[in-house]
Write a structure and sequence with these properties.
Pfam families: Lactamase_B (PF00753). InterPro entries: Competence_DNA_uptake, Metallo-B-lactamas, RibonucZ/Hydroxyglut_hydro. This is Metallo-beta-lactamase domain-containing protein. The protein is of the alpha/beta class and 403 residues long. The chain has one domain: 4-Layer Sandwich (Metallo-beta-lactamase, Chain A), CATH 3.60.15.10. It is 17% helix and 23% strand. It is built from eight helices and 17 strands. The strands form two sheets. It has a nine-stranded mixed sheet with strand order 6-5-4-3-2-1-15-16-17. An eight-stranded mixed sheet has the order 9-8-7-10-11-12-13-14, with helices on one face. α5 packs parallel to α6. The longest helix has 15 residues.
């Protein structure tokens, strides 16, 4: 790890330029949100979370509470999009339909945002971001019916569905993720320029890429074999993505769990087959923010990244058991860093090994050099909009675990 030199001039990371792959995990303190810029300039946003959890169990909003999280995210994303495209996102992807990923309505403290211009939905999370930035295509796990494993009707999902309906009526593009495919989320700006870059739909709704071509396999039981109270959960249905650029691999998988009801229902461990389908990667986002039901031993062993990224906002992000696994060299022997976007002091008091994390506050920026052979990771201050550089990790050689 290197520390930025001190001086009168603010240091930050260079702006994206052609040929670089840039992955920015935002630290809003309210949920998951990432901006990814492909080597040709195509932009991807994965989730725009807005949790309304009470302060006793969650981090403070960052930079502060003067704006809604969707507004802060839109401002951050706009200033880091490529020149000439700072009012548009090519792909906005919702990993699953929970408030800390799409924007909550109500919540523990009843906080909610203002109504949209037509009054049909509330501005929170993804709908809020879409008020500020044009969206090329919206992709989620459940469009158009939103009925798997059963009809989704809670206030947060209903609000998101109203937003989707308004978008469709306005001529906007919305699609269900195509598991196994690499053409659905293909580069748009200059599609032929960087053939070494791809985005694969790795999993969703219990369907997992089979490891070759576009072939998939379905791992959940047929619903007619289960009573409704034992259906797959929303987290289990999360979509996962695998970004590739040359030798570099990046995994992100929403809130996929490995918990199996204490071994009674092995099929509930959807995390393990998804991780095995992905294979070794260089950077992996923790499933379910590092919560107790996710990031199991086979996830760690299969992915064995050089960098784990945790999108934290809760007092259990990450838990003691998860962090112990992430750092366990018996699962794989190579060095690794664990970086978390936001962390509560209460968690640090309980989980003493959190001192072994390389960073516990700030935007996490992964910059992959042209061609994908090397990358570095930077931590940026999230207390304001200056994007001051706090720490740098690397450079790393991509593809270490596959050599």
């Amino acid at each position: 790890m290197t520390e930025p030199a001190e001086g009168p001039t603010k240091q930050t990371v260079p702006a994206w330029s052609r040929g670089w792959l840039e992955i920015r995990q935002l630290a809003t303190g309210r949920g998951n949100c990432a901006l990814i810029i492909a080597p040709d300039g195509t932009s991807y946003v994965v989730d725009v979370g807005e949790s309304h959890r009470e302060a006793r169990s969650s981090t403070a909003p960052k930079p502060d509470g003067s704006r809604r999280p969707g507004e802060w995210a839109a401002r951050y994303i706009a200033r880091h999009l490529p020149e000439g495209g700072r009012d548009r996102i090519d792909y906005l992807i919702a990993t699953h339909l929970h408030g800390d990923h799409i924007g909550e309505v109500g919540g523990e403290n009843g906080v909610t945002g203002p109504a949209s211009a037509d009054g049909s939905y509330v501005l929170t999370g993804i709908p809020d971001l879409a008020q500020h930035l044009e969206i090329g295509m919206l992709v989620d796990r459940a469009f158009p019916s939103y009925d798997y494993p059963q009809s989704l009707e809670d206030p947060t999902v209903s609000n998101y569905r109203n937003f989707v309906q308004a978008r469709v009526h306005g001529g906007g593009s919305v699609a269900r993720i195509e598991v196994g495919a690499t053409d659905q989320l293909a580069p748009r700006t200059d599609p032929q320029a960087f053939p070494g870059f791809s985005v694969r739909g790795l999993a969703a709704n219990g369907v997992v890429w089979a490891g070759s071509g576009n072939h998939t396999r379905s791992l959940f039981p047929d619903l007619d074999q289960l009573p409704p109270d034992q259906y797959p959960t929303e987290n289990m249905c999360s979509l996962a993505l695998l970004f590739s650029y040359g030798a570099f691999r990046f995994y992100t998988g929403g809130d996929l769990p490995f918990a199996t009801a204490d071994g009674a229902e092995s099929w509930r461990d959807i995390e393990t087959p998804v991780a095995r389908a992905a294979g070794p990667v260089d950077v992996a986002v923790l499933n379910h923010h590092g919560y107790v039901d996710a990031d199991g031993p086979e996830f760690v062993r299969a992915l064995r990244p050089q960098v784990f990224v945790g999108s934290g906002w809760d007092s259990c992000h990450p838990t003691i058991e998860v962090l112990a696994r992430l750092l366990d060299r018996r699962l794989y022997p190579q060095d690794r860093e664990v970086l978390v976007t936001n962390m509560m002091e209460e968690n640090r008091i309980v989980n003493r090994r959190l001192d072994e994390c390389g960073s516990d506050e700030g935007h996490i920026v992964i910059r992959v050099a042209p061609g994908g052979s090397t990358f570095e990771v930077n931590i940026l201050d999230n207390s304001d909009e200056e994007d001051r550089l706090l720490k740098t990790f690397g450079p790393y050689q991509s593809g270490r675990a596959r050599r």
